[in-house]
Every structure is written in structure tokens, then in C-alpha cells.
Amino acid sequence: MELTNNTVLITGGTSGFGYEFAARLIELGNTVIITGRNVQKLQETKQKLPVVHTIQSDVSKPGEISHLYNRVISEFPQLNILINNAGEMRKLSLHHNHDLTDLTREIEINLMGPIRMVQEFLPHLRIQKNAVILNVTSGIALMPLPIAPIYSASKSGLRWYTQALRVQLKNTRIKVIELVAPGSSTPLNEKFRNEEGFDSNRLMAPEKIVEQAIKGMKSDKDEIYPGLAKVIQIVSRIAPKFIMAQAGKMGASFMYANQ
Ligand SMILES: NC(=O)c1ccc[n+]([C@@H]2O[C@H](COP(=O)([O-])OP(=O)(O)OC[C@H]3O[C@@H](n4cnc5c(N)ncnc54)[C@H](OP(=O)(O)O)[C@@H]3O)[C@@H](O)[C@H]2O)c1
What we know:
Elements: E1 7-10, H1 16-27, E2 31-36, H2 39-48, E3 53-56, H3 62-75, E4 81-84, H4 100-103, H5 105-126, E5 131-138, H6 149-168, E6 174-181, H7 206-218, E7 223-224, H8 228-238, H9 240-247, H10 252-256
Parallel strand pairs: 1-2, 1-4, 2-3, 4-5, 5-6, 6-7
Helix pairs in contact: 1-7, 3-5, 5-6, 8-9
This protein binds NADP nicotinamide-adenine-dinucleotide phosphate.
NADP nicotinamide-adenine-dinucleotide phosphate binds next to helix 1, strand 2, helix 5 and strand 5.
């Protein structure tokens, strides 16, 4: 698709991939609206990207999605690209007690968030001349990362949902794209830096991932696998036990403690 003169809504646009998507899509001549929960981060982003439009909205709250929809559709009726990017990743030991609501937070944000966003915006996107829904999954959708079990579940769930969505929308003008992102040097990974087995040299810069995503969008790809995500895709098929053994090494003492 032509990546100019579009109106793009990006959930979670104040850092990492969301910020890079916003900066790059503005450079290409698109109107960009970003969301996030933290007002200060939204204001700081507006200072760095003065033409970006910011709306505070928590994607894990259905009421805030409806409010976001009403506001975006009235202020930006040309909206034709939705990028479901907002996400959170926590390390979590299943040996500990957890509040049952907080336990599934990543499912609410990373999986139910995009599902509800798509449902709310679908009638609007369906009547655009051409539209895109891009969901950001992860290499962790192809193989679980045991130190982050709920995150792993959220991303594999989002991958299957995205594939089902693509089939259901095949007779519409909405293109459904999955960005299967590899590990990247964004704030999301900061809390993992001191874990054993965490190799910061393997992280790909968010700018490079977004550059590949933009290339993939321009050439109408269904799925985009930057850097190591391509390797994970191949190895998880031909040597699933090997890749699981590697994934289980990260944060081993955190996970296996108290058994
Ligand atoms: N970094 C990686 O290694 C990696 C790899 C594969 C996939 N991904 C995925 O890529 C996406 C972006 O991650 P990132 O690495 O760029 O993370 P990041 O730098 O931490 O950015 C996350 C963004 O999402 C927003 N956000 C978080 N929870 C939200 C909520 N409930 N409602 C609305 N906005 C919310 C954050 O702002 P507020 O906190 O202010 O809300 C922030 O703008 C996520 O879906 C992540 O799972 C990341």
C-alpha cells in the first residue's frame, strides 16, 4: 500500500516500536494519533513530535476503547490504519501467590486490548477505500518464554486471532498484517537486563524493526519477521525441543526457586 496521506492510530506510541512507528509514519506524510496511559509520557512525545496527536487511553479498559473510538472518529474521520502495538511484559513465577485479577494483566492489555480495538473500529475501517490492521505479536508467539508465561500466552493468542481475522476479512478492503517482532532494545526489556541468560547483544534496535515493518506494509506482506524472528520461526519448526531448552535458560534461578 501507499504509506503516505493515511490516518494512523497507534496504541502505545510513547516509546519503543510505537514511538518509532509514529516518527517514521509522520516523516512519510501521514496523520498520526497515538495513545498511552501516562499523560506525562504523552506530553513528552508531543514535544519530540509536535504534529503527533495524543489521546490518553488504556487499552485494557473497554470503556476507554469506546471513548477513544468516539473521539477518533469525530476528530479524524479519515482513519484507515490501526496499529495494535501497546503491550506489557512481566517476569512472573507461578510458584508465588498472585492476585487473580492482576495475574492476567498482559492478557487484558496484549490480547483482549487488540481484540476489542478491532471490534470497535471494524465498521469504520470496512468503509474506507483501503485500510490496514497491524497487530504486533512477537517471536514469543512462536515459542514460549517460560519466565514470562502470561505474556507468552497473550502473544500466541494474538497470533492465532490475527490469522483468523485475516481469513474473516478476506473479502473486504482491510489488509491484516502481523509484525512478529524479535527482542528489541526498548523500555519493555529493561527489567530483564539483569536476568541470567539475557543477552542484550541480541536485541535489535526498534528503528530497524519498524523500518522492516514499513517495508513489509508497503509491499503488502501478511506477516513480517524482522531479524531473529525469522530464525525463531524456522528453528521452532525444525527443532522445537532445542528452542524450548534455550528459552528455559533465561532466569532459571528465578523460575526454579522454592520448588
Ligand atoms: N521490545 C521487545 O523486545 C518486543 C519484542 C516483541 C514484541 N514486542 C511488542 O511490541 C509492542 C511494543 O513494545 P515496546 O517494546 O515498544 O514497549 P515499550 O517501549 O514499553 O512501549 C509500550 C507502549 O505501550 C503503552 N502501553 C502499555 N500498556 C498500555 C495500556 N494498557 N494501554 C495503552 N497503552 C499502553 C506504553 O505507554 P504507557 O505505559 O504510558 O501506557 C508505551 O507507549 C508490545 O506489544 C510488545 O509486546 C516487544
